[in-house]
Amino acid sequence: MTTDEQFETGRKTLKAQPFSQLIGAELTAFDYGHVTLVIPIRDALLQQNGFVHGGVLSYAADNALTFVGGSVLGPNVLTSEYKINYLKPSIGDRLIARGSVLHVGKRQAVCRCDVYAISEGKAETLCAAAQGTIVTFEPTSSQRS
Amino acid sequence: MTTDEQFETGRKTLKAQPFSQLIGAELTAFDYGHVTLVIPIRDALLQQNGFVHGGVLSYAADNALTFVGGSVLGPNVLTSEYKINYLKPSIGDRLIARGSVLHVGKRQAVCRCDVYAISEGKAETLCAAAQGTIVTFEPTSSQRS
Amino acid sequence: MTTDEQFETGRKTLKAQPFSQLIGAELTAFDYGHVTLVIPIRDALLQQNGFVHGGVLSYAADNALTFVGGSVLGPNVLTSEYKINYLKPSIGDRLIARGSVLHVGKRQAVCRCDVYAISEGKAETLCAAAQGTIVTFEPTSSQRS
Amino acid sequence: MTTDEQFETGRKTLKAQPFSQLIGAELTAFDYGHVTLVIPIRDALLQQNGFVHGGVLSYAADNALTFVGGSVLGPNVLTSEYKINYLKPSIGDRLIARGSVLHVGKRQAVCRCDVYAISEGKAETLCAAAQGTIVTFEPTSSQRS
Fold this sequence. Notes:
The structure is a homotetramer. By secondary structure, chain A is α+β, with helices and mostly antiparallel strands.
């Protein structure tokens, strides 16, 4: 596949996830070992104090990790585990989740993801940092492990 | 506060989170050190293979951890960090996230959360397991740390 | 293998780890899904304030996780990843690390470990809690993944 | 304090940890937000297959995280929690653990640590990656939280 075809495949996968549509996530970069997800911030994604809910940051990290793992392992991947540290309250126009790969093996990749919040014309703020394991699965299997 | 008042306060907090309303989460138990969140499974919460999206499981774990931390530390708490392992694909009628407390200090609690999927009349399946840190914050502060 | 033979195999594996000998770890229970490691506390295992060094607690958690994973997956296993929360300073006569299994798949097990400190005749104190993934490897392979 | 004085203080702290002496760790860099620990690999640090024991990698990550947290928060710090992914078997002459800081707050810092193995004249191999939280404590307190 060419880079453009890969990107198109990634976008189709994201569109095929009803929950990603509910969140409103968009794939804006999908290269070997580097992936960017963008989530426009809207009221429905907030918690009680007006910040983006941690669950949205977790979704962003989880999905960017899965996609960046898929960029090096192929399409049949899922996130096995990850940890996330919340660093700052998230406010602004949109979230940007950047996934990268630390190590690729035959059946798994260990990846990191940093999640930023940004307002128009302002600098990005690092809001959360994650690290996790993405594993391949057999497409006919109905089990995670 | 009585137990009933605590439970009512917990439910109000959950209702005040727009993202929890988008997800459709309900608080069904809120005792000192033990909290249960229930999420009815519907199409909008799935990924491309028909399972509940990992981001929903992460939301459930994150929020159950925050609430169970709040049950022992008071209302001004947030999740500082957690890790989650996905164990099985989640299918069924609803998710049940049970949070419990391992250790309470002055300013933080370390908690665990197990997330189950269940179909009417069937046994629960453990789908994800999480562990994390909940910290207190000053209500006037606009910063997480 | 009988339970006694399994226990003997576990003890031999621990004895074959030079670092476990340096630490002074002993395997005191090795059942399917439940393992106990004991580490007598001595001056060489402390940090600058007289508590057991976090690295010793991490070793205990890491190794109990590997062994309990091995109790359900077989001898060719290694810890892929884990997270640990330190809960209380560790003082006393010995550390007790108890590993248990949350979920077993074909190629991996997700496990938890709680590490306690104890002094003669006193109650145990929970000092650290861990959760991680143990994976099988091909015995002829020289690579972790 | 000058940079040289800070480095000297860091080295003294490491020397005051009996377990770090048992491991044989050396502090080779201690700057604001960046710390390097080196551990010469010797037989006593191995597991049964001739690789460095995971517990040594965990010690290296844990301690580099604590020290790099201390480089930005001051000397009264401890590691609250961390997660580690093991990436490759560790063989060679020495381990190099490099800690860096993602975010500093008033009472905590979130940090990462990458652990490499190296043989004389060869390229470094990334063997483990960690992320965790370092917190300040009151020097008179005898409790972690």
